[in-house]
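Exam revision sheet. Question 4 asks you to relate a sequence to its structure. Input first:
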Amino acid sequence: MLTVHHLQRGQSERIVWLCEELDIPYDLRLYKRDPIFSPPDLKALSALGSAPVITDTTFSASKPLKLTESGAVAEYIIHKHGNGRLALAPSHKDYGEYLFWFHLSNSNLQPVVMRSMQARQLSPDPDSAARKQADGRLNRILDVYDDRLKEVPWLAGEEFTAADIMTVFSLTTMRLFFSLDLTGRDGILGWLQRVGERPAYRAAMEKGDPGFAPVLGAEAPESFFSSLRRRV
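Answer key, structure tokens:
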């Protein structure tokens, strides 16, 4: 059995969504933030102490696989459980685009968002050199995505792929932790609306984060930290 360990309001939503799109059997374990980061029982699952984590007894009950890192987990599930579905083969005309966009989220978009978030925390002055540099880099990478999605319906081209699954979190749920308004970015916003219409996405979000409304619009949502303070 494939077991997915998901930290709610976290990037492991990608893996829940992937399993739903592939329509494969899996066991879902949910973990609430404590109060911001992973709770002790999730931290104990791996040296990284974060989600996603999967365990898999499908191919060896005596030596179950344990795997972390969302890109690695996604590729493993696609090829070991999904018969390669949602990935493009090397023979596909859009294979290069698929590789680029699959990896860009974790290698560039998400780190750039994190750097901009850190710059805001370190310097409240929007005119500081650090803020200007970080926000400038963020706007450039958002332009890259927006321009692409004005040309094609999905990141790899005409087909929905795991490249889309790998990217959506950084432009939706992650905005709970970093105020990001997408007004005027019609390419990205149209893409997010198409994502929100996918039954598997809706099912994954309801299973993984019950009661949470996906952040698919332009306006920045209420921050996770503000909602946390209200609950305390």
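Marking note for examiners. The CA atoms of residues 98 and 156 lie 5 Å apart.
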